[in-house]
Structure formats: C-alpha cells, structure tokens
Amino acid sequence: MLYEKEDKEGILADLRESGMRPATLAAQPGRPSRASLIRRLGAEARGELQVPERRVGGRCESRSKRGRWPDETVEEALGLAAQGMPDGDMSRRLGVGSSSLAAAWPRKYAGGPAMSSSEGDQL
Question: Among 28, 31, 80, 92, which has the highest number of CB atoms less than 10 A from its own CB?
C-alpha cells in the first residue's frame, strides 16, 4: 500500500503517542510493517518528514529534578496498566525515564487514591 506524506507523518505521530515500539505497532491490523516504520523514522531523522506533535494525556512535560511526578501522570500510568500496556511502552508514552518506576505506581497505588503529597515527594 502506498501512503501519502501526510499519512506517513500521521502514522509516526500515532507511534509516538502510543509509546509502542515499531514492532508492536506493526503487529496491529492495518498498520505498516516494522521495516516501513523504521524507514519512516529514518526519513524523519533526515528531515524528510515533519511529524506533528500531539498532546499525550498524563505525559510529564516538565518536572523539577527529584521532584514529585504530577498526579495526572501517575493516574494515567494506573489507567494504562489497567489496560495491560507493557511497562516499557507505558514509560515511553508518559515520558518517564524508568520503566521500573512506571511499573511501581500501579503496585503502590492499586485500589487507592492517587497519593498524598508526602508520598509523591519521595518519587
């Protein structure tokens, strides 16, 4: 299947928004192959494609070093974990550097409120 430039850029935006690896996205029905996605990522790196930025709910765009993660980010991690998203994909989607941290939130806050401020300061 031939894709227009806008379609290619949209698919790469979907890849970024989902937080998935190219192979995981390619496994979904109607998606391009892993090799095609990797070629498109290369084209983007060369400046041939301009991927639109999308707002990802819960993604932490700014946080002070060693500061508290926003409640929205933790709540989004809880929702993604409940949907069965793998830890690595979840951490990439939310902009969390460590998949073990993103995996710890669902274990820590399962069944309870997001967090108290004293607990969040330690994360």
Answer: 80
Rounded to an integer, what distance in angstroms lies between the CA atom of residue 27 and that of residue 108?
31
Only one residue has tokens 């998203």, namely 85
- Tell me: the pLDDT tens digits for 5-36? 888 888 888 888 777 788 888 888 888 999 99
The span from the CA of 23 to the CA of 100, in Å, is: 21
Burial of 64 (0-12, 13-18, 19+ CB in 10 A): exposed
- With a CB cutoff of 8 Å and minimum separation 6, the contacts of 13 are 51, 52, 53, 54
- Token pair 């070629």 in the structure block, residue: 39
Q: In terms of Cα–Cα distance, which of 74, 41, 45, 78 is closest to 59?
A: 74
Query: For 53, what's the count of Cα atoms within 13 Å in the CB-facing half-sphere?
Result: 3
Task: Identify the burial level of 84 via C-beta atoms within 10 angstroms of its C-beta, where 0-12 means exposed, 13-18 middle and 19 or more buried.
Answer: exposed
